[in-house]
Amino acid sequence: MILDSKIPNGPLEEKWTNYKKTAKLVNPANRKKLDVIVVGTGLAGSSIAASLGEMGYNVKSFCFQDSPRRAHSVAAQGGVNAAKNYKNDGDSVYRMFADTLKGGDFRARESNVYRMAECSLNLIDQAVAQGVPFGREYGGYLNNRSFGGVQVSRTFYARGQTGQQLLLGAYQALMRQVGKKTVELFSRHEMLDLVMIDGKARGIIVRNLDTGEIERHSAHAVVLATGGYGKIYYLSTLAMGCNGSAIWRAHKKGALMASPSWIQVHPTSLPQSGDYQSKLTLMSESLRNDGRIWVPSKNNETRKGNDIPEEERDYYLERRYPAFGNLAPRDISSRAAKERIDAGFGIGPLKNAVYLDFSKAIREQGKEKIQEKYGNLFDMYLKITGYDAYQEPMMISPSAHFSMGGLWVDYELMTTVPGLFALGEANFADHGANRLGANSLLQASVDGYFIAPYTIANYLSNEIHTGKISTEDPAFEKAENAVKKQIEELINIKGTKTVDHFHKTLGKLLYDYCGLARNEEGLKYAIEEIKKLKQEFYRDVRVSGHGNNMNTELEKAGRVADYFEIGELMCYDALTRNESCGAHFREEYQTPDGEALRNDAEYQFISAWAWTGEHTEPELIKEPLVFEEIQPTVRSYK
Amino acid sequence: MDLHLKIWRQKDQKSEGKLENYDLKDLNPHMSFLEMLDTLNEKLITEGDEPVEFDHDCREGICGQCGMMINGLAHGPLKNTTTCQLHLRSFKDGETIVIEPFRAEAFPVKRDLKVDRSAFDRIISSGGFVSINTGQAPDATAIAVTHQLAEEAFDSAACIGCGACVATCKNASAALFTSAKVTHMALLPQGKEERSERVIKMVKQMDNELFGHCSNTEACEIECPQGISVLNIARMNYEYSRALFFKRK
Ligand SMILES: Cc1cc2nc3c(=O)[nH]c(=O)nc-3n(C[C@H](O)[C@H](O)[C@H](O)COP(=O)(O)OP(=O)(O)OC[C@H]3O[C@@H](n4cnc5c(N)ncnc54)[C@H](O)[C@@H]3O)c2cc1C
Ligand code: FES
Which residue in A330, A340, A586, A598 is the catalytic one? Predict the structure, then answer.
């Protein structure tokens, strides 16, 4: 199979304009004849559902939460990037493109990255028009701050709740269409399978999570905007419900998965404190604008942070990466923290953390200023840990956060299954092997507001004569039966161990062998262990209750069943990439001073994987990456 | 630490519910309240019982999905804190804790601690938005919004829609939730144009959903995890009267 990325012709700056010029349109009268399913109501899902509804298509919108407003995008704290150059500090679309490409370690498609930077300008306008109360200067103009991996201030923010405010804007746009009846809403519904007819995506099978009923829904195109699968590690910064099932089930129906092992580990989350723990809370990266990261320079330090004098502190980011210091990109900062922790310099009760210290900033700017900038984060820190970070340094530690991998999509955001689109964190595009902070809200939003409305219309223009798709088609029956069979199977195992037990065990395996650092031996070991764990799951899991009513354990069991397979693929993916890049650090491939060693000659491609069945190895298909505008260089933040 | 729990169990909307007793031992005080419920559920499942259904997702205090009455208080004893951000260190060793769902006629119980809050979504879809289409918005700096105004609007926009205000109100009024959105939008120049229609539609929908009237007890503000002020309600009343006044003219 040869992957056609459908990158338009012409110079980089004109590709998207050229695409839009030639994309086919659907006459407004014909749009009513076309149905679109959108799974997910995060920024990507809400924005595309609202856009398509507005345009006049019949849209059905699904999410598993009780309201679309609770999609995981709501949790994003720090901000959203846009190359507006309001600060006049030398920013431009081109610079943002270059930063993103470099930040992603030259493992992203140039054309996509450029388009994201280009569309960033419109997103801020859209959000402000919707009433998003972004941070403002006293004169009334929009304010910015800077984020890891860049030297300009291009991050727009709404206190520490940027995701919440952007999502509420998109949710309100969605609810406006729901009120107008152009969008029909199905909350508390989980997609469990994709239905294909004649090789095209034609519908989904969902479970009504309140009643247990299995439903069929048909459409001319299906959009998956189901977010990331970082919760596979169990401990992560993601919401408890985040999962990979929708994309995984589409994968098993023929959509390729790209770069599954590239999962970003965020440097500034709260450390784990016990084994009952269900998640790790993120402290926004924006804290690194004023906070300084350090560990004691003495091994096994027992004194409290405040009692350790300045000369006995190791500001290791400032030491190793003087040009970017505390703002070094996430992969580099996380790895540097792990390096110090592993070397015995970690702090906190479990010696698994580093300090993030605001004493200098408070001394220089005053407590009020710091409170205004990060007050809610300090409050959150106090609530969770019981410590006051105005008085003593915070303790932070790296944790799984964002999946750069996901369904492979072409320039139109269409997967290898015709009529199946993947938007936002569910696709692999734009971030390469490492995502720069504040680019993800951006990507999810521009996919939904500005890109997919053109590309989906282009696809639908060939569907106007198709007519209504019947849910009586045998393909629906078959998919429905398979879903019901799996539910019955899970309920009937009646073993002894809980779903969470399996999820935690899998997560630990992945942290240890396919986490911040990987090596060949470990990955091979992990693949075998995951296989065994999966077998044990099907023998010994206990899912209480029934399939025909509300049953959270059953929901979790289905997701964990998919996680085993995703985890295995992650390990294969990491195993076949004999280089280090971004989030993927293969211990065998590093420079003498411990930096990642990329191998462009052999690995300048995207790994896209095809499902070949349960007991066979997945098939690797390569999409070569061509760099016309910027030649890959060694990433240096020194 | 040890805890004695009394938890509301209800099979579905139609069944009758009752409080059941559970004992948990050797809990870590650093555990969150929901992690304590996870621990209880693990125990129930391994013992062959059905776990307690409760709503939650982000566990960061921002999605608004969690929420239950804990010893009669929405989201428990801590001020401005969601249930997921509550930790066992806020309770005493050996304490008895009564856990019930958020109650209101407009929030029917689905099962155990889960309630149906979709009435909130319908209030938003009745008018809680700016009628701007996607794709072609004017430049964001075209209209200046002062720092103070943006911050004030933000204070209202920060509502997480958890429903604690309704659950704690003796009239089960949704005035705090609705007024927060009305205020957020009415304050900003982008939302001002539609303020009259918006407030009329949202208030009407609020009444249709069987929420009660606000009688100014101000309990909602005290229980709100985001500290949304009752001044929003005053603002909503002002906007409503203003809208009616201009409509009549
Ligand atoms: C704590 C945290 C902080 C972050 N901070 C930032 C930040 O400051 N800046 C930034 O740019 N990015 C940030 N990110 C990343 C960013 O929030 C996400 O990448 C982005 O919001 C993803 O949006 P999305 O629309 O793709 O998916 P999501 O918002 O995750 O939405 C997924 C949707 O899919 C639905 N869904 C999933 N599976 C199914 C199924 N099977 N059936 C039905 N529905 C389903 C869910 O119900 C949900 O509606 C942060 C992430 C985290 C975890
Ligand atoms: S779980 Fe999201 S607010 Fe508590």
Answer: A330
Amino acid at A138: Y
- H or E element at residue B233: helix B231-248
Half-sphere exposure of A111 (CA within 13 A, CB side): 21
Residue B2 token pair:
């040890």
Which atom in ligand 2 lies closest to the alpha carbon of residue B82? 4
Residue A330 is a catalytic residue: yes
pLDDT at A151 over 90: no
The answer to whether the Cβ–Cβ distance between A384 and B190 falls below 8 Å is: no
Query: What per-residue confidence (pLDDT) applies to A147?
Result: 75
Residue A187's alpha-carbon distances to A41, A184, A558, B123, B148, in angstroms, are: 9, 10, 18, 16, 36
Please report the pLDDT score of residue A1 as a whole number.
Answer: 85
Handedness of CA A92, A94, A100, A103 (dihedral sign): negative
Collect all residues of chain B within an 8 Å Cβ-Cβ radius of residue A274: 28, 30-31
> Per the structure block, which two tokens stand in for A445?
């939003």
Q: For position A373, what pLDDT does the model report? A: 83
- Least confident range from A128-137, A625-634, B70-79, B240-249: namely B240-249
ipTM score for this prediction = 0.98
Beta-bridge partner residues of A145: A155
Beta carbons within 10 angstroms of residue A134's beta carbon: 23
From A226, A249, A289, A447, mutation site for ligand 1 pocket: most ligand atoms within 8 A of C-beta: A226
- In this complex, how many residue pairs, one in chain A and one in chain B, have their CB atoms less than 8 Å apart? 225
As beta bridge partners, residue A189 has A208
Ligand 1 residue neighbourhood (C-beta within 6 Å): A 39-45, 62-65, 71-73, 75-80, 162-163, 190-191, 225-228, 237-238, 243, 245-246, 282, 401-402, 424-426, 438-442, 444
Cβ–Cβ below 8 Å for A274 and B138: no
A366 CB-near residues (< 8 Å, 6+ apart): none
* Nearest C-alpha neighbor of A141 from the set A83, A81, A78, A86: A86
Cβ proximity of A560 and A518 under 8 Å: no
Q: Are A229 and A567 in contact (CB under 8 A)?
A: no
For B156-224, the three-class secondary structure string (H helix, E strand, C coil) is HHCCCCCCHHHHHCCCCECHHHHHHHHHHHHHCHHHHCCHHHHHHHHHHHHHHCCCECCCCCCHHHHHC
User: Confidence band (pLDDT; 50, 70, 90) for A588?
Assistant: very high
- The answer to whether B141 faces chain A, any CB pair under 8 Å, is yes
pLDDT in the model for residue B249: 55
Of the pLDDT bands very low, low, confident and very high (cuts 50, 70, 90), residue A286 is: confident
Grouping H, G, I as helix, E, B as strand and the rest as coil, residue A493 is: helix
Q: What does pLDDT average to over chain A? A: 96
Q: Looking at residues B111-126, what average pLDDT do you find? A: 98
Question: Cβ–Cβ of B59/A176 closer than 8 Å?
Answer: no
- Residue A70 CA to ligand 1 center (angstroms) comes to 10
- % of chain B exceeding 70 in pLDDT: 99
Q: What pTM value is reported for the model?
A: 0.97
Q: Distance between CA B32 and CA A377 in Å, rounded?
A: 18
Query: What does the pLDDT read at residue B248?
Result: 64
